[in-house]
Structure formats: C-alpha cells, structure tokens
Structure prediction request, 664 residues.
Amino acid sequence: MSIKIFVPGDSAALALGADAVTRAILAEAARRNIAVNLVRNGSRGMLWLEPLVEVQTAKGRVAYGPVSADDVAGLFDAKFDQGDKHALGLGLTEEIPYLKRQERLTFARVGITDPVSLEDYLAHDGYQGLHKALTMPAAAIVQQVTESGLRGRGGAAFPTGIKWQTVLNTAAAQKYIVCNADEGDSGTFADRMLMEGDPFVLIEGMTIAALAVGATQGYIYVRSEYPYAITVLNEAIEIARKAGYLGANILQSGKGFQLEVRKGAGSYVCGEETALLESLEGKRGIVRAKPPLPAISGLFGKPTVINNVISLASMPIILDKGAAFYKDYGMGCSRGTLPFQLAGNIRHGGLIEKAFGVTLRELLYEFGGGSASGRPIKAVQVGGPLGSYLPESQWDTPLDYEAYTNLWAVLGHGGIVVHDDRADLAKLARYAMKFCAIESCGKCTPCRIGATRGVEVMDKIIANQDRPAQVELLRDLCDTMLNGSMCAMGGMTPYPVLSALNHFAKDFGVVK
Amino acid sequence: MSQAYNHEQIAAIIATQQDRPGALLPILHDIQDALGYIPPDSVAQIASALNLSRAEVHGVITFYHHFRTTPPAKHTIQICCAEACQSMGAEHLVAHAEQKIAVRKQGDCTVQPVYCLGLCATSPAMMVDDQLHARVTTEKFDRLIKKIGGGS
Prediction:
C-alpha cells in the first residue's frame, strides 16, 4: 500500500522550496523502495511552517515543517512516513491550535484536498450548493444571499445580495459575472490561496451567481503577479467543463455558463471595480464615474455582478448550509467569517479565517505570537495600503465593519501588516502618497496631482522644513483627496497618512 | 530579430485572439510572452487589426506596468517593496541587490520594484524571472544570483 504524502503547491510554499522538497521525497522514497502517493495540496495557511509536509496515517494527517530538501533523508530515517516523531514534527495537523481555533467556512477545503481533483472536491461537499441552486428560482437564490448578510469581501463591504438583486431586476439579453481577483493590497493573499488551493469553490460560486441573475458568461480577472493561480484556475475550469459543471447545459439543467480567466497587467487601480471592467474591455484601467452602477451598466455596458474572490467563494456554503447557518457567525452587521491575513513583521504569519468580532490583539499575540523580530509591535496597518495604521490603544476593538469605521479605520480585504518599533510612520505615510502617485489612474485631479504634492509635503516634513505649516498643508490636502476623489485610490490614501500623523505624531517631528 | 519576422509572428498572435471580446490585453500579453517585449513598431499593426487608433493602443501599453517596449535584460529580478515586505527589511534588500547587480560582470540582470507578490507572511519576497522566493535575506539573495547565469 502506498503512503499518501502532501506537499503544498501554493505559491508561498513554492517560494520556500516546496518543489525541491517534493523531488527529494520522491527520490528518497524510490531509493528506499517505499511506494508514495504524493499530492500537491493547497496551503493550510500556517505560512511560517511552509513547506509543511503532511503524511496520511490511520489517526489522521500528521504534519512536519518547515521542511527543506536537506531534511528529507532524516525524516525518512525517523519513519515520518508512518507519522513517527521528528524534530520538525507538529503532530496531527487538525490539532495545531492555530488551525483548530479557526472557523473555516470559505477555506474549508484549502490545504486538505488536491486543488485540481474534481473527485476530491465532490468528496468534500463540493457542488452541493450548486445542486441546491439548480432547484431554486433565481429570486430565491438572491434571497438566500441577502439573508446571509454577506458583504463584499473585496473591501468595500457592500451587501452582496443587494448587488445581485439589482442585476436580477435589470432586464438584458446578456449579463455577466466578473470575479475581481486583482488582489493588489499589500498584506493580502487570501484570494491567491483560495484560487490556488480550491479553485472549484470559486467556479461553483460564480456558477451560482450566474443562475441567480441570469448571466451566461463569466470572467475571472487575475493579476499578472499570480501566475500559479492562473494556471490552477485554467486547469480547474477545463476539468469542470469536461464534467458538465460549466458549458452550454450545466448538469443537463438547460442553463449555460461559460467561464474564462483574464490576466491583469500590473495595475493596482484595476482592483477598483469600474477600472477592472475597463481593463477587461481592453482599455486603460481608468475609473468610471458612477452612476451608472456596474449592476445596471457594467461590462460592455451590460448588467454585471462584480464581486471579490472570497465573496463568490462563500456562495457554495451559503447555498448548501443555508443563510441562517452562515449568518450565525459574526457580530452586528458583520455576518459570517473573514479570512484575516496576518503579515509583515509577525512570527506566525498566515491565514486565519474567523468570525467577525475577534480582536487585533488576539490575532497578533494568540495567533501571531508577536513580532518576527522579537521587538515590540508599534503599528498595525489593517485593510491594505489604503487602510489606517492602528496604535496599541486600538487593538482591543473587535474586528467588525462598523466598529472599525468608528475608529476611522477599515477592515478592507482583511490584510493585517505588522510593523515593529523600528518603523518610521512618517516614512510610511510618504510611501502611501508615493504609492498613490505611482498607481493613480489619472482620471481625477485630487488623486493624480494630490498624491504627487503629498510626497513633496512629506519630504519637507521629514527634512524638518517648516513643519507646522507643512502639517497643516498635509491635512488640507488629505481633506481634498478624501472628499474630492472619484474612487478609493485617492479617496482613502489619507487613511494611512492621517492615521500615522494622528497616532504617531512624534515620527513627524510634531508634538500633538 | 528582424522586423519582418516580428510582423508575421504578431499577425499570427492577433489572428488567434482578435475575435475575443476585449482582445487587446490578451494580445499584448501573448506578444510580450513570445518576444519578451512589445515592439513599438507593432502598435500600428495591432491598432489596424482591432480597428483602434494607434493612440489607444499606445495608451494601453504605457498604462500598465507589466508591459514593456524594449527588450528586457536576460534576467529580471523583481523585489517586493510594499508595506509587508518593508516591515521585514525590503529597503535594505533592494539596496543590497542594486549594489550586487551593478558590479555583476555579466551585466545580465535588472532589478525592479514590484508592489506585492502575495507572499506577505513570508517577507521579504522577490521573483527572479518566473521563480518566486520568500524570506529572502541578503545571503539568500547572493546564493540565488550566483545560480543564475552560472556564477558572478
């Protein structure tokens, strides 16, 4: 009987030598005449342990990590293929507290299954949601989504059900489902991990969306920085098509849905939904004025559902287990779970899917184990490059959309970037302006010109030139950007800048 | 590479893609994947095939960071400079990389910033050609560039 060994094919694992580990395991097994069935799974999300090698035993899967190719002979010597003890041994994977304390709904299968095995997907409750959706009228599917309380996981947190309802209500000969997989925020990798680790759940989610609003064509717009995700998605789409889960007549239902992957080209602003639609149309990624909403006039002027990867990938479980099941997680108006991504200067970085309501402090210390450098944590940026920097006094606020709004902060896409006490928040504020200047689409003046002026003002502040006047100017500029920009690019760049100034005034050389 | 050869190859790429809705980006990707860059003299050809103006095609090529109009160095080293990697010393890594590449005898590498490779929990991250690398220390960087192009 062959032994089943799992080595992740996730980008993070690959970047840490997972392919070399795979080759070493296969070579060592052959040398020892041990029959091995090696599966390239997704990542479990405990990224400080990557490459995390797992072995299937009678008691369950046993984990070892981080494994390098040089460790492999020693692992075989210790009979790791039987799940025996080794210095890198972590015991049963499911019992590792980091994983055990999570509420994995959307990421239920990631790291467990072979991402491109439809058989595996079906054996782990895959396509249950679609089967239910196929028996329901379109309006009832939308109703389930509305009742689940799901809000857009891309960052804007707009109620998904309302978006879908608008598309359903808009009559048109052609409608589209677009998946926004242009995950450009620093500190975020949930979309990437999901696409690489469980592509079928996204395909299923988009198919459900198509049934709900009457769309027949879908596009997944993936950033060019994610080549592995593109490969995995294309492979999974082909498999789904051949098995009748995509195509002109899905599971003989008489309903059709075609799906295609499109590659971005390194533009951050294309993560903004209207810029993304322009890019899909083959144009520059310039933000559109709203209205009209994409739900009414979106891709090629047709009604379009445009949702983030995680929003769409949450549909199968909502349809399968029901809106009430999903809604049961979370707090207030933030229902369900959010896959938080703990990144930057953190000891135990990774993906933590938890119900809303967990605090930053719990994530930083109980999951994250403090900073990677061992130095005190100074500032935490939540919600990507357009999110606020939070000082320690704010780390006990529950992670909830409204609670964060009250802090003048955002949850965004759930990215959490940790900085230790060596961070200079004035430099980070300058970087926020510089990033906006580089990535601005150029359509509106507050963003296009404001960001460049913002870099200049920050340079003067850092060089100690007339600081009080420059700080006043910076606040004034931020006010213009915040209120005058067309989209979140210019409109939210003030979040990191002003939160840095307000909470870390010392770094700007001004006393509050 | 001769102009005529480019023309033919680009015509073939355009032919396979031009009937797709929103064909311009897929075409530009295919051209860059095949040739390493998008030759400026191909703009007119692409524009005419898609019934666009040259200005529109030029605008798209120059809008996106990914597209380039000159042949790249033999090896491209992209180092992530976004916040998560900054928090783990990306700035120091970039300075180190630039200094190492400047004195590299082969002169076959360029160092570019990139804003997020999605490896934010294993920072600093970089991509050498199409290979990803995470937790890159200066020592690890030196080892990696020694491997490409056979020693420095």
